[in-house]
Amino acid sequence: MQIRRATACAFSNLAFCKYWGNIDDALRLPASSSISMNLAGLTTTTSVEFLPELTHDEVFIGGQRVEGEAAARVSRHLAHVRGMATSSLYAHVSSENNFPMGAGIASSASAFAALSLAATSAIGLHLSERELSVLARLGSGSASRSIPGGFVEWHAAPRHEDSYAESFAPPEHWALVDLIAIVSRTHKTTGSTEGHTIAATSPLQTARLESAPARLAACKKAILDHDFPTFSEVVELDSTVMHAVMMTGTPPLFYWQPATLAVMESVRHWRAEGFNVCYTIDAGANVHCLCLASDADTIAAKLSDIEGVSEVLRATPGGPAWLTEQPVTNT
Ligand code: DP6
């Protein structure tokens, strides 16, 4: 193998029909298919270099050496890559996000998508988009959706090689804007990896999974038809059903804070006034408000006025993960 280094970038993504719960936690095989949009502007860039002199993987994020579970998770992912390439070399990994890490915005999707592309390229593997998506999924389920571009569906399947994400519309298909109302910067106590293992303990998860395919089909059709009213209805319902599962599991998970509810209520009010806007919430308190580009400045200003909203981030539909010549340095 030619020893080399590669750098890749990937966008984070936002699910409209959520991933919550696995049929196989180790392989991250999801209990339901999900739909998302890549978030242009929320980028992770990762450089990977495999070096013969290393005796273990070294991980740096934002210039800081990372140890413990975060480094072990990266190392477990690199072990998959080593296995695929029949290599025993350890790697130096440097990664950075262009969005504030402490803002409660998920970084595992963009992180494991960028890591998968950089590591396989550095080790000399040439994977298809589907194979890369399958690999990224092993690191973080939602990372499978950050490999292809635009509007994406991640297929639930019983077999490892069949559960991957693919694009069903390019980024320019629909000028949606995600306005992320930051209401909390504290790290969540229960992360999504643990949350997925709790999902099946909720008496509501069976009903959620039974009704998920209909929501997914309606959501996909609404996106393809540029049908914002139907899109709003499905996206808000899917988010609320997931949070109902979270709140009714053992142990129960409550992610919403008072300001989360204040934003939700305002969004419903603005929609009643005629704005094309709706919300969805992941495993945290911050609220993703989706609107049409034509309304984005107005909605962003209104969000900033809500008490408890400290900042509003903005993202538009983004393309696939890509390789770049600009390495990440540790300083
Ligand atoms: C609520 O992909 O972060 O954001 O596979 O353990 O890394 P891991 O979980 P993750 O779960 C995402 C959960 C969610 C919904 C979604 O993005 O679909």
Main sheet properties: 12 strands, mixed
From the alpha carbons, calculate the radius of gyration and give it in angstroms: 19 Å
Overall spatial form: globular
Number of strands: 14
Mean pLDDT, as a whole number? 95
Low-confidence stretches: none
- Secondary-structure-based class equals alpha+beta
Number of helices: 8
**Small-molecule binders:** ligand DP6
- Identify the quaternary structure here: single chain
Distance between the termini: 29 Å
> How large a portion of the residues is in β-strands, by DSSP E?
25-35%
Q: What fraction, in percent, of the residue positions are helical?
A: 25-40%
Order of helices and strands: EEEEEEHEHHEEEHHHHEEHEE
Q: Any chance you could write out the topology, listing elements then pairs?
A:
Layout: E1 5-17, E2 22-24, E3 29-30, E4 34-51, E5 58-61, E6 64-65, H1 68-85, E7 90-97, H2 108-122, H3 129-139, E8 151-154, E9 165-169, E10 176-182, H4 192-198, H5 205-225, H6 228-247, H7 258-272, E11 277-280, E12 287-292, H8 296-304, E13 311-317, E14 322-324
Parallel strand pairs: 5-7
Antiparallel strand pairs: 1-4, 1-14, 2-3, 4-7, 4-8, 4-13, 5-6, 8-9, 10-12, 10-13, 11-12
Helix pairs in contact: 1-2, 1-3, 2-3, 5-6
Bound molecules: ligand DP6.
Ligand DP6 is lined by residues 15, 18-20, 28, 34, 106, 108, 140-142, 192-193, 196, 282-283.
Compact overview of the structure:
The protein has 331 residues and is of the alpha+beta class. Helix content is 35%, strand content 26%.
